[in-house]
Amino acid sequence: MPKQALERIIEQAERAGATLVFRGLKDGSMNRMGEELQKLIGQRNVSAAIHPPAFQQFSVTRVPAVVIAGAEAGEVLENGCARPETFVKVTGDVTLDYALDYIERKSPAWAAWAKHYRSKIVGGIR
Q1: Distance (Å, rounded) from C-alpha 44 to C-alpha 115?
Q2: One Pfam family this chain carries (predicted)?
């Protein structure tokens, strides 16, 4: 993923209260991953997790991906995937506020959540 895109996502994730999820470690090393995250995140208040199963759970095959999931998404099927109606996902190199706006416009079941998170990024949305 391009560094510039990741930096933009980190900045918006801080405002939205989002958690960054990574599939694995940088160069297979926890130390290397920690160093890279420190360089990218710096003093920002952003949560990050390394959680490979989430990529299967939400059928993430391309990054970046923005996922909003309900609590029931934790109940995965035999194949390790969440039921499609328990989450919504947008993939592509777009800003977080754009992805949330897209969800708000295209996914009525998730519109309120998308609007809530997007309002934290752009402010003043009602």
Answers
A1: 23
A2: TrbC_Ftype
